[in-house]
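Work Package 3 (structural annotation) set out to generate three-dimensional models for the target panel prioritized at the project kickoff. During this period the team completed the workflow that converts sequence records into discrete structure tokens, so that structures can be stored uniformly alongside our sequence database. As a representative example, we reproduce one entry of 180 residues exactly as it appears in the project archive.
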Amino acid sequence: MNRKTDFTQSLDAEVLIIGAGIAGISAAYHLKKYRPNSTFIILEGRDDIGRTWSLFRYPGIRSDSDMQSFAFGFKPWTQKKTFGSAQMICDYLHETVIENGIDQYIQFGSYVTSAEFSSNEGIWTVKVKQKDQKSLVTYVLASYSWVQVIMTITMDIPLTLRAQKSSKVKLSTHNIGRKI
């Protein structure tokens, strides 16, 4: 996906996840588990996962929530420390991504600059600045399924996905004309 010129292309994925932080990793895991035939990609602006935990490096940075409730339900926190340091959390996230095969879906150095839905055309246009490139990549998505995921990254994703498994995801009216 490394391009040097402006262009528009269709994305070879049904679902677009923006960011490889905790929410993005969780969305990817749940897509793989509850919609195993769906294709997806994670666009991450940085060169590492974990956002807050890999970005900030000031002394003493740690979780302010106990890790047993902060951790993913599908991968319990097994460390003895109740409040994980940034490095411990980064290690935990890396383990999670690798153990679940999520790493192969992450496109690093891909910073989303905008996402706009055209209600007239029924498509999303997502502009992405790729690292070390002077131009933007524009993706056109005609599938609605990613909209549901990106707009509802919550703890109830498995229930939402399971309920919609047999039917096409409908675009709700509150997303019409939405710009992100």
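The domain at 7-175 is CATH 3.50.50.60 (FAD/NAD(P)-binding domain).
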